[in-house]
Amino acid sequence: MKTYQRALQFVPIIFALGAGLQGAANNNAASAGKGGPNRIPPPAPANLTAVAGDQKVSLSWDAARRAASYSVYRGLTAGGESATPVAANLASTTFTDANRTNGVTYYYKVAAINSYGTSPLSNEANATPAGPTPPPAPSSLSALPGDRQVALAWSASAGAASYNLYRGTSSGGQSPTPVRTGITTLTVTDTGLTN
């Protein structure tokens, strides 16, 4: 009889513990159901910028909270980005879109992703790749005649790596094919001419 009473005394304690554990489980389930503070997709990346280069566009954006990776979407019209990303699973907040066509404007948006979903798309940015800008024409060209030769000199052209020399026998009649290429100085003597 004592043993029976003692067992009855333990029943409420076991029940109370069971109720407590069940309550905790219910709270966890409710928290999971609501998503919890970290169980939701990241917000949209902010401040997307696009910088054009020679046959490329360089993108950068601000990191999004809770983001595990990023996807980049590209289009040829404003708001016309493809539903298929051109780059996915990016761990960094920069991306260079290479092998683009110079003179074509490209439009971009970025999404952040984690295990709970994908963010809304970022702001849109666009850029138009372009090749290197050619240097300006050399200036102050002078010609000093000599015996079967002409000594030429000119002023430097900003950004020029070398110079080509064109010759003709009438004003404005220079051949489209240079007679000298790869000149790295600001003077040259054109020889073998007819007096």
Structure write-up:
The chain is of the alpha+beta class and 195 residues long. It is 17% helix and 34% strand. It has one helix spanning 2-34, and strands at residues 49-53, 56-60, 69-75, 87-90, 94-98, 106-114, 117-118, 125-127, 139-146, 149-155, 163-165, 180-183, 187-191. Strands 3, 4, 6, 7 and 8 form a 5-stranded antiparallel β-sheet that branches. The protein has a 3-stranded antiparallel β-sheet with strand order 1-2-5, with no helix packed on it. It is rod-shaped. The protein starts with a helix and ends with a strand.
Order of helices and strands: HEEEEEEEEEEEEE
Q: In percent terms, what proportion of residues is strand?
A: 25-35%
Structural class: alpha+beta
Q: How many strand units?
A: 13
Low-confidence stretches: 1-34
Helix amount: 10-25%
* Overall 3D form: rod-shaped
Please describe the topology of this protein:
Blueprint: H1 2-34, E1 49-53, E2 56-60, E3 69-75, E4 87-90, E5 94-98, E6 106-114, E7 117-118, E8 125-127, E9 139-146, E10 149-155, E11 163-165, E12 180-183, E13 187-191
Antiparallel strand pairs: 1-2, 2-5, 3-4, 3-6, 6-7, 6-8, 9-10, 10-13, 11-12
